[in-house]
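URGENT: need a sanity check before tomorrow's submission.

F., can you look over the DUF3604 domain-containing protein record below? I want to be sure the sequence and structure line up before it goes out.
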Amino acid sequence: MKRQWYEKMGAAVLGCLLLAACSAEPEGRGDIAGESLDTAVVAEREARYESPSDDGGDSQVLFGDLHVHTTFSPDAFIMSLPLTGGSGLHPPADACDFARYCAALDFWSINDHAEGITPRRWAETRQSIRECNAAAGDSANPDMVSFLGWEWSQVATDPSKHYGHKNVIFLDTDDADVPARAIAAPRQRLAQAPMGRLAQLMMSLADFENREFYLGIQGYYDEIADTPVCEKDVDTRELPGDCLEVADDPRELFTKLDEWGFDSIVIPHGNSWGMNTPASTSFDKQLNRAQHDPDRQILFELYSGHGNSEEYRQWRASVKGDDGGLMCPEPSDDYMPCCYRAGQIIRERCEAAGEDAQECQRRDFEARQNFVDAGNSGHLTVPGQSVVDWLNCGTCVDCFNEPMDHRPAATAQYALAISGFEPGRDPLRFRYGFIGSSDNHRGQPGTGYKEVRRKFMTESFGAPEDSRAARRQRDTREPEPFSTPLGNENVSLVNARNMERQNSFWLTGGLVATHSAGRDRNAIWGSLKRREVYATSGARILLWFDLLRDEQRYPMGSELMTGEAPKFRVSAMGEFKQLPGCPDYASNGLGEARIESLCGGECYNPGDERQLIDRIEVVRIRPQVNATEDVADLIEDPWRVFECEPDPMGCTVEFTDETFTSGGREAIYYARAIQETTGMINAENVRCEYDEEGRCIEVNPCYGDFRTPAEEDCVAPAQQRAWSSPIFVDFQPALEEESL
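Structure tokens as predicted:
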């Protein structure tokens, strides 16, 4: 019997390979299961978001997620592999149901990676978003608004050519009012599946119940490969609808969006996330009139499941040497470059192998440079390395939930502090509002509502047992006492980035909150365009930040000129503490089975008790007035700190900048509302053990695979927070004063 089985499987393998039949039907958009929520449910939610005073004016706070991937995205598709801990396919319909019933969002947008959005997938995405809106009830007062968009993801190993990731979202959803194609960034190996047909077939046999998923991998990539790339230097409106359109840089992306002429917003994100960002990347190259569109690029995703891109620091992961090339910097008291740690690892191995001190020092220096030269794949220059070897290198030890390998010159604070100087032109500055979102790749908008189920609510992934799939994520080479330069033979789609270490840095994700005049699409869009928005780390903290002048309030996001000392007011209220499980309307709307499979049995389910606001911090940034000013001297963080009384009704403070007029220059202000300490998944990332001198001597990583039990959530104490959008105040003598 066993022999017959092997013969049958052998025939299946041979037939599959010879006929290239290792494929299954392509994934569709799915079916939306839930209907619109009862108006009483929506009204009760709105009541929880109201200010107890008149601080909010006529607006209401709404919460959303403007960064959501489904398995239409190539990386999300591969991350969904059941053998590596994924939960299977999650098409756009799943995202709609999750946003409405699991996360109880007021709005969201779909942002699949454009390089994987074939003509069929773009058509199905548009249709699914329209269906989600149709299920929202009255369009003037919907239970939820769904926006259409994509992600333009430009990644380069050369820092001077790396522009990063930008989400593009649109006001409208009708075919006549949106681009006919998504616009992608160029990607090498775009249509190449990360495993061959034989590997896919073997995986389907190993996980026979989910065999169609593995057989569909090649079909997924074949669909991309079969889509021709659009002709260059042609007006985007004149291109055929069945090609893949590519924009090489932001300038070209903005030009194509101008040609379409539709109302859109472009949101940079994941900016300081080192796993995909070269070490010496800086926002300076984007602050010019070619690569920046001040009318579209008006929001900055400050916080997501990839980490916090707010805080600037002076240290760098690599620096320019005397010859103009990159080299490894020395460590400081608060930062260990990973290139320096690579040298330490090799030196320790060299000494243990009995080599003399001079030779071990040479290998140390060689390892540092090999790491720098390898860019984001530097870990592969240390043979047989593992997560524990790197200790806490690359981390910002005094930052809040920073991403892996934090890049300070790509942070929000740095972007606001720099200026673009062009001969004969006024200085150019970024005018960003702040948002948070999830960057979720499982069709789960707004996952930050509860810090539970790490393997479900974050991007953490890995095989649940010690299997071949689990070992593929690890470096199985011998731990040699010398470094090896990076070669093509060492790099694959699986190990090019240190995904094993990244599992200790995945977070549940953030939210964007709007101060909106209503629940409808145009009201929410208006708030986004005015930058009257704020970011949260996932908690539904209520926050108001206003400049007060002449009995008027100028809300967050405002720009104005004055010759007087500006006066401000900040008000904040903590989030409601969560109850376990899901509210009745969610269970009734989706059914218990789908609640369990889609929401993991846990939904946004607020009780009646609020978390307390611990303090309010204010940051002041004075943008450069000449290119020689050191950015570090221009960022005051925190500039003011106000301790709050333990009042469940929140905290309100007022303050004036008495030094503004004497400074005679622009100042940018934003507020942080810091909540009392609670637990957050991966808030201590690699979980260091420190010696008496404060040095990290051992780590306890939060693995994605079986080495960390699935039920362990790696929760650590942290303080959830909300960040207001800035208020931009330029100096003008009192006699010439006027509001913008």
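My own read: The chain has a mean pLDDT of 91. Residues 2-19 form the longest helix (18 residues). If you see anything odd, call me.
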